[in-house]
Write a structure and sequence with these properties.
single chain; alpha/beta; Rossmann fold; 14 helices
Amino acid sequence: MGLPIVVKSQEEFVNINNVPIHVRTWGRSLNDPLEDVRELIVFIPGMVGGLPNFYITMLSTLFLSLNGEVPIWIVGQAGHAEPKPTTNAFVLPLKGNEILYDINGQVRSKVEFLKEYVPSNVKVHLVAHSLGTWMTLKILKQYPEVKILFQKCYLLFPTIRGTEDGKNINCKISEIIFWIYDHFRFIVVFFAKLPYCVKAVLFSIAFWISSVDREHVNPAIAFSKPSILDKCVFLSKEAVETLRYTVMDVELLEKHKRLLKLYYGATDGWVPLRAFREIKWAIPDIDAEIDTYEIEHSIVFKSSVLMGNILGKMVKENML
């Protein structure tokens, strides 16, 4: 699907609910006027690696596939990135502020962002990945004042139902990782004190072994700070428990089926194909399809360009 091409984008932090939120924009920045803009893409990332910089190549590809005519904004998870010290912005610690960083806090930050920065004359193509898809359904259900902005919602590798009654192997692996993190967090603290060049070499080797695109080295280094990983692990623990036994909300999906486009992975370790069959049995005319390219759940680590082009075709089909 072509070589990765990164086009110019802007990195910004906005204060939402007293938390600096990491945003990256293509085409228009948050402070640019939008009077002549009819459509806008807003992206909600997933649970682990919910950092906008992991999605740069994918969203650059999407931007180019739409000929640069539709601005793109990706809104990071609250607390999963920290602004540079020179900005004097302060990120509240996890302890005592859990309500800001839990799942519902993450949903609230996305809602407040949409309310504050998207004018009523602009229609939003809301793209969500993994846990972001659960957040999207939460917005549709609880925030009608935001829902009216949406032109279409694209749910990529949707985690909107339980993971095989909690027996999913990825859930078990996650629980092991959480235990290791809780008991050996000092290793993360030690790693954070290493020189940048050492961390870059270690991540480069790890990514080479696992065939992850090397472009993710810098975002991974930024993401590896203990204060950020603490919030990520906290959200991940809650998400795994929340989603473990989540029942698919057929009533909600039926009500909003004209707004929804669901894209399931054929070999997704988090979302079994049974979930696709269930939703098509319950709502036969819902717009849902199965990926045919063997893209992994973590879409950006190996398939950024491919996923960007696929998403571009989806958006073109639903533009005003």
